[in-house]
Design brief:
β2 (51-55) and β3 form a beta hairpin. The protein starts with 28 loop residues before the first strand and ends with a helix. The chain is an alpha+beta fold. It has helices at residues 40-45, 68-74, 133-137, 167-174, 178-181, 183-194, and strands spanning 29-35, 51-55, 60-66, 79-90, 95-103, 110-118, 121-127, 140-146, 158-162. Helices cover 21% and strands 35% of the residues. It contains 6 helices and 9 strands; from the N terminus they run βαββαββββαββααα. The model is unreliable at 1-20 (pLDDT under 50). The chain has an 8-stranded antiparallel barrel with strand order 1-2-3-4-5-6-7-8. The chain has a single domain (29-194), classed as Beta Barrel (Lipocalin), CATH 2.40.128.
Length: 197
C-alpha cells in the first residue's frame, strides 16, 4: 500500500503460480487488518467497524468498507465491496501470495509472511517486492485480527455494490484515522450493527 492504502490485502500464498498446489488458507472468516503504529490500540478496540475482509478457505477474499457518506447522512450502515481477489498459501514457508482481481484502490499483488500467532490474531509482514529475507525486513508489519461477529450476523448489512468513496477517504477509514475511530463515530456504527447482530 504505498499510497496511504496500498493494500494490505488479507492474503497469504505460494511462492510462484504453478510450482505447487496451494494449501488451505488458514485465516477463514471475517478479519480486520490492524497496522502497527500509534493507532494500533484504538484500531483493535474498533476493529471491523468501518472495514473487514471476508476470507474463504480456498483463498478467495472480498474486502468490504462502510459507506460512511450514507451513514453520516441518514444513519444507514451498509458495507460495500472495496476489493476482490485470491490469496494462495504455502504452509511450509508460512507465506501467502495475494493478487487482487478487481480493486477500487488500484491495489497490487503482494506477499505476506505469517510470523506468529493463531487464527484469531496473526502477525504478518507484507512485501510488494518479493518474499526474500530482505523483503521481509523492509515489509509492512500488521495483524490480521478476527472480527467480534460472524459473517451471518452482518449478512443483511453487506451489499453487492462497489464503493464509490475516494481513495483518500478509504485510506483514512482502513488505517483507522482518528477522524473515523472517535467514540461518537464508533458508537454510531455499533448502534447500526446492533440492529443486525
Amino acid at each position: 500500500m504505498r499510497w496511504l492504502v496500498k493494500t494490505v490485502v488479507v492474503c497469504l500464498a505460494t511462492a510462484s503460480p504453478g510450482i505447487a498446489l496451494a494449501d488451505d488458507y488458514p485465516l477463514v472468516g471475517l478479519y480486520s487488518i490492524i497496522p502497527d503504529g500509534p493507532y494500533a490500540e484504538i484500531a483493535r478496540e474498533n476493529r471491523c467497524l468501518t472495514a473487514f475482509v471476508s476470507q474463504e478457505k480456498n483463498g478467495d477474499y472480498t474486502w468490504y468498507v462502510a459507506d460512511v457518506d450514507r451513514l453520516l447522512a441518514d444513519g444507514t450502515l451498509q458495507y460495500q465491496i472495496l476489493e476482490t481477489g485470491r490469496c494462495d498459501y504455502n504452509a511450509t514457508d508460512r507465506v501467502e501470495f495475494c493478487e487482487p482481481e478487481r480493486s477500487a484502490m488500484g491495489s497490487e499483488k503482494n506477499w505476506s509472511l505469517h510470523r506468529k500467532g493463531d487464527a484469531d490474531d496473526m502477525e504478518i509482514v507484507t512485501s510488494w517486492q518479493g518474499k526474500g529475507a530482505s523483503d521481509w525486513e523492509m515489509g509492512t508489519p500488521s495483524h490480521m485480527v478476527r472480527c467480534p461477529f460472524q459473517r451471518e450476523q452482518v449478512k443483511a448489512l453487506i451489499s453487492n455494490n462497489w464503493t464509490t468513496l475516494t481513495k483518500d477517504l478509504v485510506g483514512r477509514i482502513i488505517w483507522n484515522d482518528p477522524a473515523w475511530t472517535n467514540k461518537d463515530f464508533a458508537r454510531a456504527i455499533r448502534d447500526a450493527q446492533g440492529k443486525s447482530l
